[in-house]
Amino acid sequence: MLWSDLVTIAPLVGAIVLSVAIIVVDLIRPGASRPAVAVTLVGLAVIAALTIQTGQTSAHAFGGGYVVDALTTFLDLLFISIVALTVLFAPDYLEPRGLPLAEFAATLVFAMTGAMLISASADLLVLFVGLELMVLPGYLLAGFAKRDALSTEGAIKYFLLGSFSSAIFLFGLAFVWGLSGSTSVGVVSTHVAAIVNGSAPFSPGLAMGLAFMTTGVAFKIAAVPFHYWTPDAYQGSPTPITGYLSVGPKIGAFALILRLFVGALDPAKTDWLVVVIVLAALTMTLGNLVALTQNNVKRMLAYSSIAHTGYMLVGLAAYAGGQVSGLQGLLYYGAAYTFMNLGAFAVVAALQRRPGVTSQLDTFAGLGRREPLLGILMTLFMLSLTGIPPTAGFFAKFSVILPAVQAGGWLTILAVIAVLNAAAAAFYYLRVVVYMFMRESTTESDPSRHSSLVWAGLWATTALTIVLGLFPGPLLSIVTDAAKAIP
Amino acid sequence: MFATFPILSLITFLPLVGAIAIAFTPRSRPGLARYLALAASGLAWVFSLVLVVSYILPTSGNTIDPAGFQQIEQRDWIPVFGIQYKLGVDGLSLVLVVLTTTLSWISILASFGPIKERVKEYMVSFLILEVGMLGVFLALDLFLFYFFWEIVLVPMYLIIGIWGGPRRIYATIKFVLYTLVGSLLMLVAILATAFTYSSGHNGSFAGAFDFLALRAYGPTGFSDSLQLFAFGAFFLAFAIKVPMFPFHTWLPDAHVEAPTAGSVILAGVLLKLGGYGFIRFALPLFPVAAKTFGPAIIVLSLIAIIYGAIVALVQPDLKKLVAYSSVSHMGFVTLGIFMFQTAGMNGAILQMVSHGLITGALFLLVGVIYERTHDRTIAKMGGLSAVTPVYAATFGFFMFASVGLPGLSGFVGEFLVLLGAWSYNPWVAAIAAFVMILAAGYLLWMFQRLFSGDVTEFLKGIGHHLTDLRPIEVVTLVPLGTLVVVFGLFPGLILGLISGTVDSVLAGLQASPAVTLFPLQ
């Protein structure tokens, strides 16, 4: 190991040091949440600075297994903001329920380390290690409220299906390694290219390996028909954790897709195009249709998150169909979805501050009168998730649909399916608005004050949701650079 | 005089400034929110009148586009996709902008009494609605146009859903879902045209959303199949807004449940967004498709005209009657547009303006009686002319305007459309003219049931609450009445403004042939 390697992976080292530091702080001041939050936020700021610093120049480390480029930097900063926002929203929810905040924050930072490793991996094994490091803390977090039966049930389902899909993924990886003789993304890519252009014989084993890896990844991003764990895991988890689960592991899994499918399997993209189109169409449509009938907002957002996976897959499909801008759309969508969805979950968590308050739609009845500001912000997030201007969600949809229309053929039909889905989604998102503003409160009003941390996080997500909708230019140029870094 | 002065942006965003100011007022002072809203929309109205003056008397500093657009404001917005912030005004948008600003302040004034709950939120929604509507009429970039088009949706959704009648939630969700399906498909069509434009220009997106660039490129650059598809998507979006038969079913629900001012804006401006969209975007961009689908759309328009009138005839609810009469009257608009000749299109635009004024006033008048009796059932009313003579006279005036009495604005529009229809196909003219008799029937019958005969027991029960028009109500109705008379006597005021737009749209259509959809060989 060289000194230069260590400098390159400085953000990762920082993340591990941070999670240890949080635990140490908790040992010194047991149960005190404010110091833990403060340490986490300062640490995350330092890691962000390190990420930007190392991201100035593209670099490789550990014999090419670890790569730093514009994509790594963009994704890492996104992961860091996801964790920072989650930590801001969590204390108000966890404290009244007696759940330990420091352990929560430390686990979250571990998960972030895994996600950051994925975004920087140029080797299939590193990719797998990163994946496991990201999802294992996720299982812990899903079962964080260990005395709550629903939470435990969700965690067990998440764990069983998650490990199962990891095993499938690893199995596929073994095939690919066995037949290409390397785990390096670059070597696998040349191998696949040789098969595609006919200079090497078609290998059924490699195709099987690809099929297994696709299945494993489809589980991770909760694409239909591999989505069954999502609703229970999301509904059972403590709400701030659900917020994290709906964006963190999803963006992480998309990072894996970018590194694996776009990096290693790029030559064969016309072959997996069909698979992605079918997955995208099924995922959007089923996610939205089932979300229509939900009366629990967390469960509704879980199904809607499945639908949003589908919209992101439209970007990937457009890329496979020959439009590089599809990847920009995918990345833009990822960022926009992160902020609007975390904002929506933050409002749900804020409403559930008192233990025992459910996330049923009834909880939202009359919110516009009880807490007008919270109601207005939730309306903004719902409009953004629907995709109505001037919000981030609108431009995100625009940025994946435009490349799909450009690619033409079946992808135009996919684009039409996507917009029809968006119209259907309006029904269930706006139903929340109906409850908040057009129905009278059914519960007695709860004059609980939300902490300044929650407000800080909410204002941050609100500002990003509006700014990314009105002035998408700057982020668009960042994701353009990031997308260029891949192939 | 306005060389570098962004008057279009000023008009568009003045209401937004008002909305932001209102957001910071204390909830305990609803009066402040009301007067701020009135001031913001009033200022926007004043500046729109200034715009009319500067349009008619172009000065040396005024940028005039060869296609007739003035006061063009252009800034890069999202350069990667060639998306611009581009506003411009021609005669058609000018007329509709003034209609919007006029009806906006009138509606806000008319809400002073009826809206007592959550006044602040109401006024904010209303002003944002005005921003969206003005933006749609002024945008010269398709992305920007779509942006404003969707913004209109949200405040209207809230206005119907929060301040509406008993079935408001059903009505408002229906309104949103109908509109959204159409507009999202239009988004795909906008993207398809932008992409086609860019692939015709070496893959560069510069100008791909610019309406003027697309209009120059589209008629020849877009293939027939793209035109048919894109026109279909635009048509769906606009036909739902107009609304044309069979996409009209959201309208009666939305109108019945909306608060009075919401109905005024819905009928007065929102329905015109559809007609405006046809003339501004659908016809110039996709002339081949417009020619191809034209006859079918004329048939749909005739069905709307007849169907709306027949259904209006049997409505027991006053507001629903006016709503269905809207379907019928807006049928004249689409009929006039799709005959593709000068008289018809002039008539369609006049009809849009006069329908906005007359139906807006009728909804205000329905609101007056509803506020006093909390009922709109025609059967319960009777003998009102004895109790409220001024109200009866005003109602009668606007009722005759809606019937199409010569000398009032409703007559000119329908007359021009019929004139065009006669040269297009006498049968079309005959059917449309027959419906004008039906219109006289349902309106006069309604008037007779409301105002003549003995005062009903129901109205006697209202007692002294049944007052005649109040000064504030007179103030809202007088400008509308004045304009109805002015445009009825001097339709040239509008025709002069719109002739440039009408000529250029028709010239574009002349050059393009229709295609045979289902070749029989």
Quick gist of this model?
The complex is a heterodimer of chains A (487) and B (521). Chain A contains 20 helices and 2 strands. Chain A is an all-alpha fold and 487 residues long.
Structural account:
The complex is a heterodimer of chains A (487) and B (521). By secondary structure, chain A is mainly alpha-helical. Helices cover 77% and strands 1% of the residues of chain A. Chain A has a two-stranded antiparallel ribbon. In chain A, strand 1 and strand 2 form a beta hairpin. In chain A, helix 14 (325-351) packs across helix 20. Chain B has 521 residues and is mainly alpha-helical. Helix content of chain B is 74%, strand content 3%. Chain B is built from 20 helices and 2 strands. Chain B has helices at 7-23, 30-56, 91-110, 119-138, 142-163, 168-199, 211-221, 224-241, 250-257, 260-285, 287-313, 318-338, 342-373, 384-387, 389-403, 409-424, 426-451, 457-462, 471-489, 492-510; strands spanning 70-78, 83-89. A two-stranded antiparallel ribbon of chain B has the order 1-2. In chain B, helix 2 packs antiparallel against helix 3, helix 3 (91-110) packs antiparallel against helix 19 and helix 5 (142-163) runs antiparallel to helix 6. Chain B is globular, with a radius of gyration of 22 Å. The chains are: A mainly alpha (487), B mainly alpha (521). The A-B interface holds A 368, 372, 383, 388-390, 394, 398, 401-402, 405-406, 412, 415-416, 419-420, 422-423, 426-427, 430-431, 433-434, 437-438, 472-473, 476-477, 480 and B 77-81, 121, 146-147, 150-151, 153-154, 157-158, 161-162, 168-169, 172-173, 176-177, 180-181, 184-185, 187-188, 191-192, 194-195.
